[in-house]
Amino acid sequence: MASVKQVIVMRTDTDPPMRKGKMIAQGAHASIAFLTRKLQTSNVLKLRADEKEWIEGRFTKVCLRVDSEDELMAIYKEASEAGLETHLVTDSGQTEFKEPTRTCLAIGPNKSEEIDRITGPNGTHPLKLL
């Protein structure tokens, strides 16, 4: 098992349902958001040890699903309060959706066991694979 990973949590209940390509694009936005946020706030990319391990290692990602925006937001809140790297993606509503829509969330990169406390099989929000 990877010692550092990132989890992408994707909503599966949007109306209209997201096309697979849209899901991939939204997940990619979420995954790279931690790097772009750091670059937007500083000209120097300062990475925590676990972020550096993730980038220099295998870029482990796990894609999970939720069936409601409420569930997505509960996981976001808990992960944020736990001090984990979190990035919530809200689609602008210019293509598939008629209004801005929260689509997914990236948690990490962080230590796997920290993320698993929330999203793992024995976590407070045990999620299913996407």
What would CATH call the homologous superfamily?
A: Bit1
With helices defined by DSSP (H or I, 4 residues minimum), what is the helix count?
A: 4
State the secondary-structure class: alpha+beta
CATH class: Alpha Beta
Mean pLDDT, nearest integer?
A: 92
Task: Extract low-pLDDT stretches.
Answer: none
As a percent range, the share of strand residues is 25-35%
Count the strands? 5
> Which CATH architecture would you pick?
3-Layer(aba) Sandwich
What is the strand arrangement across the widest sheet?
3-4-1-2-5
Gyration radius, in Å: 14 Å
What is the fold named in CATH at topology level? Bit1
- How far the N terminus sits from the C terminus, by CA atoms, comes to 19 Å
How would you describe this protein?
With 130 residues, the chain is α+β, with helices and mostly antiparallel strands. The protein has one domain: Bit1 (3-Layer(aba) Sandwich), CATH 3.40.1490. It has four helices and five strands. The chain has a five-stranded mixed β-sheet, with helices on both faces. The two termini are 19 Å apart.
Quick structural overview:
With 130 residues, this protein is an alpha+beta fold. It has four helices and five strands; from the N terminus they run βααβαββαβ.
List the helices and strands and how they pair.
Blueprint (H helix, E strand, L loop, with lengths): L3 E8 L8 H22 L7 H8 L4 E6 L2 H13 L4 E6 L9 E11 H8 L8 E2 L1
Parallel strand pairs: 1-2
Antiparallel strand pairs: 1-4, 2-5, 3-4
Task: Based on the model shown, name its key terms.
alpha+beta, 5 strands, single chain, Bit1, globular, 4 helices, about 130 residues
